[in-house]
Amino acid sequence: MKSYGEVVRYLMELPLFTKKNEPANTRHLMELLGHPEERFKVIHIAGTNGKGSTCAFLARIFQETGLKTGLFTSPHLVRINERMQINGRMIPDEDFRKAFWRVSHAVSILKEEGGQEPTYFESLFAMAMCWFEEQKIDLLICETGLGGRLDATNTIRSAEAEVITSIGLDHTKYLGDTVEQIASEKAGIIRKGVPCIYSAKDPASAGVIRETCMRMKAIPVPLEKEAYRILERTEGAIKVRLTMQDGRALDLAVPFNAAYQAENACLAALCALSLGVKEEAVKSAVAHTKWPGRMEQIHKDVYLDGAHNPDGIREIAREIRRTARTRKVHLLTAVVSDKDHGEMVRELCDGVRYESIIVTTAGGGRKLDPQILAGEFLASGQGSVMCVQDARQAYETACRNKGDGVLFCVGSLYLIGEIQYAEL
């Protein structure tokens, strides 16, 4: 494996023959690498929905303060390099290849000493930490992969702050089947004496996070639902007022159409303010943040949103209902098989009659048969449902069919990635 392409193909095949390891395995790997993750400051982000957007807001904020800011996030939409960025620029292919070989050498030693082959995510995490160390970043905005307590990213021993976004039922096979159980896993990133900024709109999850903060002697910074409100909507943006605990108000221009981005922007703002960033710098950075695939308008009346669980779909469904009051709405969707697709369909159909629905496939080995999804839409009372197996062909058909209506493409980040690739 000498080329970048060969490295990517190898990494993409890792899930076929590895399984998630205990954190001790990742810690040992990082030790063999010389603990690159300890060479810079870290803000650690967990949650069910909104992690990526919150990371994007934070990365832009600290980049604008003059810090060389790294971003580690997942999944990617088009290229694997998207997962590792510095000041908004993806890791170059050659640097990606070099980071792989540095990690690969350490993995050989790890296995000789009785350790396990790292998973796909663990490998990418180790590679990213090596690259960030070599590039001498000042600060890393680090998104967890799955959960928090046992996540590979939680081998990072210290952080400037933690952020926990909204929590809902997702990955229940691994994290628990109640909001409280999932919140407990996410709260595993909380460290002693560190500020924890968290969404407090759900009492059950907020209670778990608050109790964990007390036990860990961390500093709880809740974002209550009443602490922010949308003042105004314009084309492609919303104006949000955040009221802080001392009564001060901060107005943010959030450059997304979706109301759910108000909470993500406010979480990022609270985190930055708690670390001493000036209000004007926060306002400017939020207004200029870009994050593809999250209620992203790519053409006139064509929106992409990577919502992929019932809570995320519930948020985008609100936007669809709001649009449907005055416009005809069309839907393009694909869902992976391990999601609660029945509940997702019910949310998408609640109070909405679509002019047309196209269901397609995305997600490789996890893809759901579109006939199953089509049947669920028909059972929910929708009339026009078409199956198109190829995602890019489905997108082209949906764009032709929308006429003067509005097209929403939702249900899976894999689908959004296929559409983004088709647009290149």
Short description:
By secondary structure, this protein is α/β, with parallel strands linked by helices. Helices cover 41% and strands 19% of the residues.
What does this structure look like?
The chain is α/β, with parallel strands linked by helices. It has two domains: 284 residues, 3-Layer(aba) Sandwich (UDP-N-acetylmuramoyl-L-alanine:D-glutamate ligase); 128 residues, Mur ligase, C-terminal domain (Protein-Tyrosine Phosphatase, Chain A, Alpha-Beta Complex), CATH 3.90.190. Helices cover 41% and strands 19% of the residues. The protein has 15 helices and 17 strands. Strand 10 and strand 11 form a beta hairpin. Helix 3 crosses helix 10, helix 9 runs antiparallel to helix 10 and helix 11 packs parallel to helix 12. It starts with a helix and ends with a helix. The mean pLDDT is 91.
